[in-house]
Amino acid sequence: MLSESQLSALLNSAARAQASSGEPGSSLIPSLCQTLLQQLSLNDVLLWQIDLNQVIPLWQSRQNEKSFSIDKESLSHIEVGEIQAFDSPSTGDQTEPHRLSLTSVPIVDSARMVIAFQHSPSQQVDDDLFQIGEILADIRRRELLQKLYASNQKQNRIFHFLAELHNSTSQEELIQLFVTDGVTVSMFERISVLSRKANSGWAMAACTGVDSVSDRSEEVQRICTEVIHAEKVNDLAGPIMPLSPDGEWSSAKYAVVLEKQGDIGSTDLQVGKLLSSQMAMAFAHIADRNLSKRKKRKNQRINKPSFWIVLFLVAGCSLMFFWQMEFRIKATGIAVPQQRQEIFAPNKGLIQVVNVQHGEHVEEGDILFEIYNDELLVLRESTREEFVAASARLAALRTISQRNGSVSQPTSGSLPPSVELAELEKKIESLTTQVELIDEQLSSLKVVAPFAGQVFRERMQEELLGRPIQQGQYVLQIAALNGPWELRLRIPENEIRHVTSAQANQQAPLPLTFALETSPELERSSSVTQLSKTTDLDSYGKLSTLALSNVKKEEIPDARFGAGVFAKVRCGTRSLGYLMTRRVSEFWVKYSPF
Predict the structure, then answer these.
(1) CA dihedral 265, 268, 273, 274 (to 10 degrees)
(2) pLDDT at 305 over 70
(3) Angle between the N-to-C axes of helices 126-166 and 4-20, in degrees from 0 to 180, rounded to the nearest 10
(4) Which of 13, 137, 170, 355 could covalently link to 105 via disulfide, CB atoms 3.0 to 4.6 Å apart?
(5) CA gyration radius for the chain?
(6) What are phi and psi of 348, to 5 degrees?
(7) What DSSP character marks residue 400?
(8) Which CATH number is 4-152 given?
(9) Cα–Cα distance between 254 and 242 in angstroms, integer?
């Protein structure tokens, strides 16, 4: 069975091989298998992934040699924790028969990995096979989770973009949104939208990265010619598509051209067809809304207003302009303790000891985890040996100087004793400082809690213990849940001017009301203690300003670390008419062409 140091050396060698390959984002499995072949003196390493009786080959070092013939059914019948071995006579230039040892380890859900070592019959590899199989399954599990996360992120961006398409209020806004934001959710580098001319042919309506389209441009004429040809041959499978609800060229008033460097694959075309079909539906919805509005205006009857109607309108307008109501700005955020700290690795090495668990309470000075750094230990020993040698030489020179007198002459080719004594004293002083610094670095490898609080990091034992770590890498977080808390609120960029104006008009902090998302019916009061001077992007990618509000733990006993909060900042009073029409006026100022 391989020791922890041997397993660590195997992983370090595989990581270095992967880094030297020039593909840092590639899988670690091939590098680790190549390292196994060298370190364990194996003939071959074979990997398969089995999920619902589907066998997927993952790796084999010798693709052209097939000393063993194992069918997929035999692989799928290897149970987890079971070892099966097969013998094969020598073939070709082999001098002795070979043995193939196989076992199965779980990956996630029904998926599992079958690992096989091809070795000589004299080798005992059962224990090594179990150990290496668990490590390879863990690496494969992390790779599958990373792919799943990337796929979900891409789908969320596409769904958000489709929602924005259907929320567009005009065809011009819809076209500009499609050619600008469409390239960010797809793999295409340029999207062009063309409109059908009144007589015949097509004209460029909008294009990615182009503010003003020139019909005389050679590039524009080329794209228009390609659209004319695609309509003529009724091409519905390429990157040139009609924007019509039924997907036909005959009923399309608009067309889209998708372009990118290199070949356009089937996945790219599927995303392009999805975006184009939703674009066509958004066009149809805008047309239906405009038609219904025109019909509604046509069917409205114009009645002569009576005296009471006029009186009601005058009273309503007076009420809207003179009735003052509280003006509140909405903000969202989280509730966190004021005293919290993220713990990072002080140096690189291997985590040997993890003394805490997720959610565990620690006191100030408790050891959280320990890092083993063999480089610092070797450097300390070599520096101490140099210090001992220099001290011995200094003592010998002092003894010689005292015996022969201070005016002793130097030997041929050597320094005077007084000069060498001075140099040795300086060297010993420098070595003493180096040893102290190294000892400080070694003591810092025992990371302690900076204050009393609760630890936050799930699966610490599984993810940290025995794992290599780099300097500055995030390890865990500590928060004092029993101390004061704060609300970290995000105020939208289009609302921050009301908050800053209200803050400038009064000396006291702005009051606010807030509630936790877990208990929205329970409203509490606080105030804005600090308002950021800068604007940045929030977790949703929108511009906002950070506002802090200090609260006591007793005021929110049901709060958890990072609990969602929604608040309303009180910014004085405004007329009812302003509160009802301010969104309309802001939209007009922002999008009006005048």
Answers:
(1) 150
(2) no
(3) 50
(4) 137
(5) 37
(6) -80, 160
(7) H
(8) 3.30.450
(9) 6
Give the closest residue to 85 by CA, choosing from 98, 74, 96, 99: 99
**Residue 113 DSSP SS3:** strand
Token pair 């608009």 is found at 254
Enter the tokens of residue 364: 């100030």
Query: Which of these, 487, 448, 455, 450, lies nearest to 337 by C-alpha position?
Result: 487
Distance CA 126, CA 82 (A): 10
Show the tokens assigned to 197. Answer: 């001319």
SS3 of residue 82 by DSSP: coil
For 328-358, what is each residue's pLDDT tens digit?
999 999 999 988 999 998 888 888 888 888 8
Q: How many CA atoms lie within 13 A of 461 on its CB side?
A: 6
Range list of β-strands (E), 214-323 = 240-242, 254-259
Contact 528, 296 (CB under 8 A): no
pLDDT the model gives residue 394: 80
- Tokens 């567009």, located at residue: 168
pLDDT for residue 331: 93
Phi, psi of 21 (to 5 degrees): -75, -15
Helix (H) or strand (E) holding 466: none
Question: Quick check: helix, strand or coil at residue 298?
Answer: helix
Q: Among 356, 365, 366, which Cα is nearest to 457's?
A: 356
Give the best-scoring range by mean pLDDT among 54-58, 75-79, 223-227: 223-227
Asked whether the whole model's pTM tops 0.85, one would answer no
Q: What are residue 504's phi and psi, to 5 degrees?
A: -70, -25
Cα separation, 476 vs 343, in Å, equals 5
Beta strands 511-516 and 563-575: pairing type? antiparallel
Q: Give residue 515's pLDDT band: very low, low, confident or very high (50, 70, 90).
A: very high
Pick the CATH number of 168-296 from 3.90.1070.20, 2.40.110.20, 3.40.50.2300, 3.30.450.40: 3.30.450.40
CA distance 354 to 249: 66
| Amino acid residing at 462 | E
Task: Answer for the pair 512, 569: CB distance below 8 angstroms, yes or no.
Answer: yes
The answer to whether 227 and 257 have CB atoms below 8 angstroms apart is yes
Contact between residue 509 and residue 531 where contact means Cβ atoms under 8 Å apart: no
Under CATH, to which class is 485-591 assigned? mainly beta
Give domain limits for the chain: 4-152, 168-296, 340-479, 485-591
- Domain 485-591 in the same topology as domain 4-152: no
The partner residues of 371 in beta bridges, in order of sequence, read 351
